[in-house]
Fold Class I SAM-dependent methyltransferase.
Amino acid sequence: MLTVDFTRFPLAAGDRVLDLGCGAGRHAFECYRRGAQVVALDRNAEEIREVAKWFAAMKEAGEAPEGATATAMEGDALNLPFPDESFDVVIISEVMEHIPDDKGVLAEMVRVLKPGGRIAITVPRYGPEKVCWTLSDAYHEVEGGHIRIYKADELLGKIRGAGLKPYGTHHAHALHAPYWWLKCAFGVDNDKALPVRAYHKLLVWDIMKKPMATRVAEQLLNPVVGKSFVAYATKPHLPVAAAQDVTKAEA
């Protein structure tokens, strides 16, 4: 289940991609399938081992094109072990809401992104997330849990403040918002409640079968209750201040 829309965030074969806070690796795997040179980084050692196993299995099964590469590694989002301007693309999906120093993470992503490079950032959307927080303290008051809820303008302001230029936004996963509301209402650890079990079956069926009816329904509902907010941005070839000076000089 991808949150980044690769029709709005195209990859070229050979692009060097950092999936920062990769988790189980869903975006890293898709980039690998598309011929990228992928680095999947997370601080969770167990998840990184699983991602590495899946990369190896994909290579063995011939799922990645010739020239594609994939590496899974542990690392700290606030101290990335890469030189400046190392990547053509950076993806950070459902991570920034966990990190106290989100400006520091943005600065590190900008540092390792090449001029002209692209970045995709996804976070829980304010409205659906606020419902979850209202229904259940246990949803977010856990170690490593969500520490903030972003409003779209707030996140875009921080993206611009980091020197990036946003070029598009959208919402995703509308069908998943009610599932999490049910989880919060019946207990985030209570998977046996009938409404939770029934809705989970619906989501699994939707993911596996991809029926047209639910695809259309989700597209219609995403602007209203899409659970994730997705922003795309580029890194200018010149620093922001220098680019503004050039624009003024040309006017």
Q: What stands out?
A: The beta strands are 16-20, 37-42, 69-74, 87-93, 113-124, 165-172, 228-234. The chain has a mean pLDDT of 94. DSSP finds nine helices and seven strands in the chain.
